[in-house]
Write a structure and sequence with these properties.
Blueprint (H helix, E strand, L loop, with lengths): L1 H19 L7 H4 L5 E3 L4 E3 L5 E8 L2 E8 L9 E3 L2 E3 L2 E6 L9 E9 L4 E8 L6 E3 L3 E4 L7 E7 L3 E4 L7 E3 L3 E2 L2 E9 L8 E9 L2 E9 L9 E2 L4 E4 L4 E9 L2 E5 L7 E5 L10 E4 L2 E7 L8 E9 L5 E9 L9 E3 L3 E5 L4 E9 L5 E7 L11 E7 L3 E8 L7 E9 L7 E3 L4 E4 L22
Parallel strand pairs: 2-9, 11-18, 20-27
Antiparallel strand pairs: 1-3, 3-7, 4-6, 4-8, 5-7, 8-9, 10-12, 12-16, 13-15, 13-17, 14-16, 17-18, 19-21, 21-25, 22-24, 22-26, 23-25, 26-27, 28-30, 29-30, 30-33, 31-32, 31-34, 34-35, 34-36
């Protein structure tokens, strides 16, 4: 009887070993209650800035691990050690900072030697939106050579906000996605010696960054300003005249605040609050004079200023006759062409006046067959005098081009104060330069000048 019981016990021993060992997947359901494999805290979460974390494992058997990566967002810097162990242990998880705006997700699979599996989710939180800008300050000269290339590197989408009213600075992109993006920043040429500056804002996430844009002005020594006349005359009836301004920069025109009978208006939008008129480059100022009901003459001045550091200044006197003042008698003779070349032409005319004139010269145009001071180019030859025989030359003409030319005299009084030659001379410049007196001369009998 005892022998039978011993045989039965010995026969059962291999079966119990199968239930208590940690050997195969087929036996997992039978041994699950015997293996213990616990990760402290369950799923593991790292903050975006965490680079090292220790996780405790409680086990009563051997184990090994495998990291299953997220193929859509690979976590290449993740390290989990050790890869295998026996009994209790510590997992050391290392990673770099997560600068992305997306969470990092991977899975750790722990498997006991007996086949017990435990899946643990590993998450590293997304980083805060960050941005790196290659240039926080952008500098331009007065005449920019090209665009400034600025690189924006961000882990989030971004947008550029430019200040209202700034129309001289431009960006070719106003928004972008995460990653590196090149933005072209450009500035218009500046026509003053004053430095100008602005800034634009780059918005990303809930944060922002400022970029300064600075443009230096022209060299003040390079600025020029002139007016063909230094005096303008009006009759007692008043009227309107145009004052031509020649410059390569921004300029402003002023009249004394106490003067109410003269008004000026620029051809450009007014740029400076205290100025009565403004312009950029060559332009004109409309001068309007109210009627003078007094018998007394009156006088004021228009002051033109360009530049701020070393200002250039031109003063033009404005004189108006009183009621009953005699008008000028000005007679302008015929205009004669002396020679025509490819880029220049010479003319002669004369005039007489009972009062000293303001200035005289030539008006010429390619389009207007009856050129005047208001619709044509003006070449002032001289100023002052009562009687003159005038020799005037037009330069910088276009070759092989037709021009209409007339003489003018600006008197102190009279209808619009301008008097013109009774004739208009039509010339056509040649293809190549020729000597005066050759076949292109309107009067071939004139001898060539040497």
């Amino acid at each position: 009887m005892k022998t039978r019981n011993i045989i039965a016990i010995l026969a059962a021993l291999p079966i119990m070993a199968g239930f208590t060992g940690c050997k195969s997947d087929d036996e997992l359901s039978a041994v699950a209650s015997k293996d213990m494999l616990i990760v402290e805290g369950g799923n593991i979460e790292l903050r975006s800035g965490d680079e090292l974390k220790n996780v405790t494992i409680t086990a009563n058997c051997g184990w090994q691990l495998n990291v299953i990566q997220d193929t859509n967002n690979p976590w290449n810097t993740l390290s989990v050690q050790p890869q295998r162990g026996s009994g209790n242990g510590t997992l050391v998880i290392m990673s770099d900072q997560n600068t992305s705006i997306f969470d990092r997700l991977d899975t750790i699979m722990l498997v006991s030697d007996g086949g017990l599996r435990q899946k643990i989710a590993l998450r590293q939180k997304s980083g805060d939106p960050t941005i790196n800008i290659s240039s926080k300050t952008v500098n331009f000269t007065a005449q920019p050579a090209g665009a400034h290339l600025m690189t924006i590197n961000s882990n989030s989408s971004w947008s550029i906000q430019t200040p209202a009213g700034i129309n001289w600075m431009h960006v070719d992109k106003t928004s972008g996605a995460s990653g590196a993006t090149t933005v072209n920043v450009t500035a218009d040429p500046i026509q003053t010696d004053a430095t100008r500056s602005t800034s634009f804002t780059i918005l990303y996430g809930t944060s922002s960054a400022e970029v300064q844009v600075i443009q230096t002005g022209m060299n003040s020594d390079d600025i020029y300003l002139s007016a063909p006349v230094d005096q303008m005359g009006f009759t007692a009836e008043g009227g309107e005249q145009m004052l031509r301004v020649e410059s390569n920069a921004e300029w402003n025109a002023y009249i004394p605040s106490s003067v109410s009978w003269v008004h000026i208006e620029g051809m450009q939008e007014q740029r400076e609050g205290r100025a009565n008129a403004s312009g950029v480059g060559n332009g004109e100022v409309r001068v309007y004079c109210e009627p003078n009901n007094s018998t007394n003459d009156r006088l004021t001045a228009i002051v033109l200023i360009a530049g701020t550091k070393n200002p250039k200044q031109v003063i033009v006197l404005v004189e108006q006759s009183g009621v009953g003042a005699p008008e000028s008698t000005v007679t302008v003779g015929d205009l004669t062409s002396l020679y025509v070349a490819d880029k220049s032409a010479e003319f002669r005319f004369s005039f007489t006046s009972d009062q000293e004139v303001i200035d005289y010269g030539l008006v010429y145009s390619r389009e207007n067959r009856e050129p005047t001071r208001w619709n044509a180019e003006v070449k002032t030859v001289g100023q002052g005098g009562f009687t003159r025989s005038v020799l005037g030359t037009l330069d910088n003409l276009e070759p092989n081009t037709t021009y209409y030319v007339r003489a003018y005299v600006l008197g102190k009084t009279g209808q619009d104060n301008f008097y013109y030659s009774p004739n208009v001379v039509t010339i056509r410049t040649s293809d190549n330069s020729r000597e005066p007196g050759e076949s292109d001369n309107p009067d071939p009998s004139l001898a060539p000048r040497r």
